[in-house]
């Protein structure tokens, strides 16, 4: 899958490997490394496209558009090649995109029958289009989404198959160990104190330091400790790029004496312990001066072990399901729903604060939930007919089956129950947390992960019980997202978040951080442009979930299941490429 040929214009600098033609790893820097993005490669195939040519079949091309978060404008992202004479194209040119779990990335695939060399799409015949999100593709079984092509009324336009594959070249780390023999003696009184310095070569022939070993004192035959380094740091994913290793004698004053150096590459090192991985340490100055100079010692690779870092996507591809539960605060502190000042105000013209938060976060997460059925609960209200107070009631009025279809179903149930229940109190979180925890406790094998979204005005009555519930839930496959709406002080919610101080109850600390709190008011801009603020809200709310998810899997030693085998398109005759 990873082509190791050079992109045009990228030639090898003197003796070192160039960048492989993938994931533009050349743009990598320490800053972008901290952004939780994964690069995915999208492959597009179509079946049974419309035939627009009279004497032959269509000559299709696929054009991908992405939608800007703020103004919702569609922008062209890229085009595949044109394939002549086929209604069942498997496009060779891929789309490589950054995938952020916490952003809803809307995509549009347009298909045209190309009739001339013109790049202007209006000069070609439109064959239809397909809309989806990047999360929908990634979240489909085997990360393979098949959808009908639409857009030409009254015509069957065929289907499109989009497959996502994570670019994995730089997700490997290696565990290596080295020793040396008969190094030059550099210290007057004792032997040398040697250490190694690793550098990776750059495009311009310069070198960048990427690792230093520890110092082994007073020996000419050191054995260094094994160390772990990412392949990205070592060679930026290019297995043939030069790696230079320098050997120094450590001096207290920092003027370390140069013993010598050697070069290798990831590909050579990956052969492991063998005669190929014994390197002569050469000091070029000495070599120039002394005719009988052989070397300044040797360095030997003792072991080389590749470790692949697993990602959130690996689990999703392997079939792990994210189960999303919503819990809404129906306590009296929110204000009377018939008054405009209420956070639950039933405004016929726009969403209230609860509705906005629910829609923003829910739309992002629903792409990962295969059946799109969400249990939706309320707490802190008096229920008809007898007015009993409940801290976990089904919004749809059916306690045996509290599931709503999609976020729209949840919204509908929320507005319906506002009309029938009476806002009351107290504000108890523990019952809804324990409700989800009961489900999470029954599936601990990594096949399911539970996310509870609590939307609240932040006034809490059962702080001690809630803390205990969270500490207990931290051992389970679940995360809690709290969105605070309204103007209240959210100190109690910040405490539950546990980012600053890990939450504890009765002297027991939470095994891991599972709560993320976000104050909704930070995301409403003064102009009332809710779209932008909702995207930012969702981003911040969901940003911690992949790491919380991975921390659970890691602690339990749960590996992702293998993804289903990739789809292999049938071979079509008459598929010439131009």
TrEMBL record:
Database matches in PROSITE patterns: C2, VWFA
Domain C2 per the UniProt entry, residue ranges: 16-147, 156-279
Residues in VWFA domain copies: 323-524
Gene Ontology CC annotations of this record: plasma membrane
Listed InterPro entries: C2_dom, C2_domain_sf, C2B_Copine, Copine, Copine_C, VWF_A, vWFA_dom_sf
GO biological process: cellular response to calcium ion
GO molecular function term, any single one: calcium-dependent phospholipid binding
Record keywords, A-Z: Calcium, Metal-binding, Phosphoprotein, Repeat
The protein's role, per its UniProt record: Probable calcium-dependent phospholipid-binding protein that may play a role in calcium-mediated intracellular processes.
Family: Belongs to the copine family.
Name of the protein: Copine-8
Source organism: Penelope pileata
């Amino acid at each position: 899958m990873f082509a190791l040929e050079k992109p045009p214009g990228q030639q090898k600098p003197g003796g070192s490997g160039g960048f492989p033609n993938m994931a533009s790893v050349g743009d990598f820097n320490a800053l972008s490394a901290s952004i939780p993005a994964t690069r995915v490669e999208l492959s597009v195939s179509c079946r049974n496209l419309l035939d627009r040519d009279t004497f032959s079949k269509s000559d299709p091309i696929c054009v991908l558009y992405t939608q800007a978060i703020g103004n919702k404008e569609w922008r062209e992202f890229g085009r595949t090649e044109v394939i002549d004479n086929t209604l069942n194209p498997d496009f060779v040119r891929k789309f490589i995109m950054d995938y952020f779990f916490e952003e809803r990335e809307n995509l549009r695939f347009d298909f045209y029958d190309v009739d001339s060399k013109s790049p202007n799409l209006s000069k070609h015949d439109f064959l239809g289009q397909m809309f989806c999100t990047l999360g929908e593709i990634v979240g489909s079984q085997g990360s393979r989404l098949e959808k009908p092509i639409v857009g030409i009324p009254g015509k069957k336009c065929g289907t499109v198959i989009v497959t996502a594959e994570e670019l994995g070249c730089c997700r490997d780390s290696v565990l290596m160990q080295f020793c040396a023999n008969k190094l030059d003696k550099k210290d007057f009184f004792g032997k040398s104190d040697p250490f190694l310095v690793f550098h990776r070569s750059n495009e311009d022939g310069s070198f960048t330091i990427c690792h230093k070993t520890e110092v082994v004192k007073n020996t000419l035959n050191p054995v260094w400790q094994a160390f772990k380094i990412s392949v990205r740091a070592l060679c930026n994913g290019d297995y043939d790029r030069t790696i230079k290793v320098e050997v120094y004698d450590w001096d207290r004053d920092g003027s370390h004496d140069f013993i010598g150096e050697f070069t290798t590459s990831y590909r050579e090192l990956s052969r492991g312990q063998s005669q190929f991985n014994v390197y002569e340490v050469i000091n070029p100055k000495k070599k120039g001066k002394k005719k009988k100079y052989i070397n300044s010692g040797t360095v030997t690779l003792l072991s080389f072990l590749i470790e692949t870092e697993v990602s959130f996507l690996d689990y999703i591809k392997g079939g792990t399901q994210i189960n999303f539960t919503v819990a809404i605060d129906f306590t009296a502190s929110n204000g009377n729903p018939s008054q405009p000042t209420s956070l639950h105000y039933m405004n016929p013209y726009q969403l209230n604060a609860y509705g906005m938060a629910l829609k923003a976060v829910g739309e992002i997460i629903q792409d990962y939930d295969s059946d799109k059925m969400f249990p939706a609960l309320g707490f802190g209200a008096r229920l008809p007919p007898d007015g009993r107070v409940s801290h976990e009631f089904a919004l749809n009025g059916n306690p045996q089956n509290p599931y709503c279809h999609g976020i729209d179903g949840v919204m509908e149930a929320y507005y319906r129950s506002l009309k029938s229940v009476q806002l009351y109190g107290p504000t108890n979180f523990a019952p809804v947390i324990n409700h989800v925890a009961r489900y999470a406790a029954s599936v601990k094998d990594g096949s399911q992960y539970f996310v509870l979204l609590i939307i609240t005005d932040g006034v809490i009555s059962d702080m001690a019980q809630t803390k205990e519930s969270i500490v207990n839930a931290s051992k389970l496959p679940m995360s809690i997202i709290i969105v605070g709406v309204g103007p209240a002080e959210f100190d109690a919610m910040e405490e539950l978040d546990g980012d600053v101080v890990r939450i504890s109850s009765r002297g027991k600390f939470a095994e891991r951080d599972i709560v993320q709190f976000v104050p909704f008011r930070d995301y409403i801009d003064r102009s009332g442009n809710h779209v932008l603020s909702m995207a930012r809200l969702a981003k911040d709310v969901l940003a911690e979930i992949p790491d919380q998810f991975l921390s659970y899997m890691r602690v339990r030693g749960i590996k992702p299941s293998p993804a289903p085998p990739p789809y292999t398109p049938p071979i079509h005759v008459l598929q010439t490429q131009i």
